[in-house]
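Structure (tokenized):
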């Protein structure tokens, strides 16, 4: 039901590729215990940020990611996800990271990131999402409205990690032909509301 809701809402052909995120892509370490390099301070300018990857479908569609050392939100570096010239208007590209779901089982988590989208099309967006994988149990949480082209904005999405989650994939997804700056990602438990006295 969740998958249907996501894809029905976006009504965007390119976004259907995000279903593939449920399978660990190549070039990542699925046994990583905790998310890392969330401020993109590691790595060489111009190369893919360590711990992160662009999934294969996104790469085939023409998206690429690199560390940038200018115009960042925090620290000295950030990531840029760029749509190449061959990207079709309705495609989507994702920068993602995968780690163990075990420490987060049963917890309500919030994924946040500072993002800035540069695009000539007002339809383009940046969406945050996280997905969980496990035996007989998957879940997907998507920031449905997304961030429009403009200044640095903090995006977020929340969801409860299923008890049987083995892996968590966090992703920053850009739809369309823009250029997305990404920085200061966090994945934290949502604190319980104080009980009324
Ligand atoms: Ca940074």
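Design, position by position:
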């Amino acid at each position: 039901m969740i998958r249907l809701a996501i894809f029905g809402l976006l009504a965007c052909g390119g976004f259907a590729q995000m279903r593939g995120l449920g399978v660990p892509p190549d070039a990542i370490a699925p046994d990583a215990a905790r998310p890392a390099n969330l401020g993109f301070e590691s790595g060489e300018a111009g190369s893919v940020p360590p711990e992160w990857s662009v999934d294969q479908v996104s790469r085939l569609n023409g998206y690429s990611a690199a560390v940038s050392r200018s115009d960042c939100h925090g620290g000295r570096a950030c990531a840029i996800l760029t749509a190449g010239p061959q990207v079709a208007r309705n495609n989507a590209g994702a920068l993602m990271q995968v780690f163990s779901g075990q420490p987060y089982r049963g917890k309500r988590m919030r994924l946040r990131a500072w993002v800035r989208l540069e695009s000539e099309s007002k339809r383009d967006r940046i969406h945050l999402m996280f997905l969980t994988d496990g035996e007989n149990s998957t879940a997907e949480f998507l920031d449905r409205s997304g961030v429009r082209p403009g200044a640095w904005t903090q995006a977020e999405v929340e969801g409860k990690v299923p008890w049987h989650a083995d892996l968590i994939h966090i992703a920053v997804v850009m739809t369309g032909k823009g250029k997305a700056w990404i920085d200061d990602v966090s994945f934290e438990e949502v604190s319980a509301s104080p009980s009324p006295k």
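Reviewer-requested clarification: Residues 39-41, 72, 74-75, 77-78, 183 surround calcium ion (CB under 6 Å). The chain has two helices and ten strands.
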